[in-house]
Amino acid sequence: MKKGPSKKNVLENAKSPLEEDVKKFHSMIEQLEGHMMVMEKLLEEKEKGLETKVAAKEMICAENEELKNRVEEQGNNAGDAERMKRDIKNQRNGWEEKAWDLSAARNEYKKL
Fold first, then answer.
1. Where is the composition biased (Basic and acidic residues) (predicted)?
2. Is residue 78's pLDDT more than 90?
3. Number of domains present in the structure of the chain
4. How far apart are CA 22 and CA 34, in angstroms?
5. CA dihedral over 39, 40, 44, 50, signed as positive or negative
6. Its pTM surpasses 0.85
């Protein structure tokens, strides 16, 4: 007469859920490997995009430096300085006239 299941039967019964867990684990590993490959491709694309942006930035910086040097080399003569002063004065007068017009319009509005 047996008192219960043998040790072998108990171990075999415990083995089947463990085997299922191992299968699930392997499928999860495969999914993660696929995800890693997708992320690696995305990373490569972003690195290529970064390289092109860095190259463009360096080219723009070099162009800016060249333009700065050209401007510094040109210098300003007295005629240019006088012209710039007149332009600034004319613009300042224009803004003052606009301020006067706005002030007059505000006074008329208050009167109404």
1. 80-96
2. no
3. 2
4. 19
5. positive
6. no
Token reading at 96: 């003052």
Backbone angles phi, psi at 75, to 5 degrees: 70, 175
Are residue 70 and residue 84 in the same domain, yes or no?
Answer: no
Q: What is the Cα–Cα distance from 76 to 85, expressed in whole angstroms?
A: 13
Assess whether 98 and 69 both reside in one domain: no
pLDDT digits (tens, 9 = 90+) for 20-42: 999 999 999 999 999 999 999 99
Percentage of the chain with pLDDT > 70? 98
CA distance 58 to 84: 33
Q: Rounded to an integer, what is the distance from CA 76 to the centroid of its chain?
A: 40
